[in-house]
């Protein structure tokens, strides 16, 4: 198991995370951005961005995000493609756990995972978790050798995980809740080349059925029951992505992460920015500014300063 140490670990590589990384890395803080997939966030999925200052009116969300990532990288920030499944913030040095087994140890954390978390739990999901319900094909695919599995989702992550499963399962059903997948064309092409993957568009998963183990899934519109041995969920909604925090941080009544005026959470050394926080207006320029402000507060925290230092010359 590999352990990587850094000054600042940023979980989430969207506009808030990238903006924060620009400022922490420029402040000479060793910065790591842990992001499972840039295409999986709200900005990466946006077809056209017409109102981000200085970028014109015909840039895609992914192009804007790639520009942000290059900018952060130019100051030394490192991007790690990892899926975070837990954190431990009980000690001064914070720990980030990933599904690959790699651990990150950081003096400060910035949480910028956005608000595309699953808004509702499916009937049977909680009861059959670990008994056929999974959120990580990379972790569990080998248990489904020569079996039939379902994947639910529309993102690049869902496509990639379906491809992983196709190497083990005899049949993979990919149920996309929308009319199209939000994955790059090359990934969709790879998906179409796999003979044991079947994609169904505009098919929503309504329930997961079974006694001790998963036996089938129920689809809606029209209703249909499909026999499967396992279900891998990569569904998105509009809830703050907080599942990896394990209840260690205070949240507001609305379910968003609670922070003070300095963007610090209820645990010293853990900061947050972006759509993981409660706000009425969700725009890339707003969350980018929050990433900047959170980063300046991290610099203040780690340097032991009385106030944040302005970053302009």
Automatic annotation (TrEMBL):
Domain FAD/NAD(P)-binding positions: 7-285
GO molecular function: thioredoxin-disulfide reductase (NADPH) activity
Listed EC numbers: 1.8.1.9
SUPFAM superfamilies, alphabetized: FAD/NAD(P)-binding domain (SSF51905)
UniProtKB keywords: Flavoprotein, Oxidoreductase
PANTHER family in UniProt: THIOREDOXIN REDUCTASE 1-RELATED-RELATED (PTHR48105)
Protein name: Thioredoxin-disulfide reductase
Organism: Prosthecochloris aestuarii (strain DSM 271 / SK 413)
